[in-house]
Amino acid sequence: MRLALHAVAVVFLTLLTQVGGLAWIGTAVMARRLSNRRLAIFAAFVAIYAGLSFAAATAAPVFGRVALPCFATGQSTLAMQSPMYCALNRHYVSKPMYDVANRLAADINRQFPGTLTQALDGSFPFLDGFPLLPHLSHNDGNKLDIAFYYGDPSTQKYVRGRTRSPIGYWGFERPEPGADLPCAGRNDILTGRWDMGWFQIFNRVVVLDRPRTRAALEWLVTRDEGQETGVTKVFIEPHLANSLGVKSDILRFQGCRAARHDDHIHFQIKR
User: Fold this and answer.
1) CA 207 from centre of chain
2) pTM, full prediction
């Protein structure tokens, strides 16, 4: 039974962080020397995990991945929405995607000075094909999610670095009356299209910054055309694409069994 629990922990931590399973194994090997003291064992796990994560950041370029910046400064135009993504090793992208993301962020900041574009899930540091759950893709460094831009509900002015959800996901935009809702009435058993009702109490009261969000969508579907690493697909819910007035052949609906995309923008580039 004990061995089975260890196996479950290794699988879970590997799927969650890619290197967490190795940290668990290393901690288990050391546990007997630590006399099973819980605090010492926990500290050992944190130290081993941190060391492996640092090693992953150092080795990732060998595997064609680079890390997006974990923290924003006053001059930053692109950063992860939360350091949590860095702690979980989910902030890696291919070098071409890194360049595209930075070009996008720089152009939005050019149009709207002081804008910070915030990245969500990218990929793990190693191995094409390794799943980044719960996503159906994000397994080769060429896919990236970015958060919407938001403003203060009373002034309608953009607030730098603010998102509705504390993690960037699950702060859904409500469709306007009569909007196109292709999944209305469906009750699929196997689906990633979660409403996450329990999570909504954690969300902030903000309003969608429509000009910036529209500009990001327009850049993704038009400005990067002709580039060697051009954007090939952009996922967002149809009601938002219609509401923002953005149309393109590469602007797609992800389907009714994939995660909702009325809380973020997903885009991907050529492999």
Assistant:
1) 20
2) 0.91
